[in-house]
Each structure stands twice: as structure tokens, then as C-alpha cells.
Amino acid sequence: MAKCAICGKGAHFGNNVSHSHKKTNRMWKSNIKSVRCKVNGTPKRLYVCTSCLRSNKVERA
């Protein structure tokens, strides 16, 4: 599972809880995109979450 290169956000794990209160495993996946960003002036492909893209924490190439 990919992680954000900026903030480190990744998948979160927990339980589905049914009406009978039976618990099964589930996963919340973060909204992570593969983006071309400028790193030290050269374009590079990074995995970045959309909240970092929206807040302009990366410079797109």
C-alpha cells in the first residue's frame, strides 16, 4: 500500500461491526495519487495524498 511522501499518510485498519456486533477486519485507503513533482529542480514521480496537493505542499512538474 502506498504512503504519502510528504505527510506519511497511508492505510488505516479497523473493524466492520455488524448489526449482531460481529467484528471483521476492514481497511480505509487514503486518497493517494502518483504525481510528477519537482524535487531539487528535477521532475520526479512521488505518491502524494490529495490533501497535500490541495494545500500546495508540493510543486507540480
TrEMBL record:
Annotated keywords: Ribonucleoprotein, Ribosomal protein
GO molecular function, one term: structural constituent of ribosome
Signal peptide span: none
Keyword Transferase in annotation: no
NCBIfam families noted in UniProt: L28
Record GO biological process: translation
Pfam families for the chain: Ribosomal_L28
Protein name (database record): Large ribosomal subunit protein bL28
Keyword Ribonucleoprotein applies: yes
SUPFAM superfamilies: L28p-like
Lineage per the UniProt record: Bacteria, Bacillati, Bacillota, Clostridia, Eubacteriales
Family affiliation: Belongs to the bacterial ribosomal protein bL28 family.
Cellular component, GO, one term: ribosome
Gene name per UniProt: rpmB
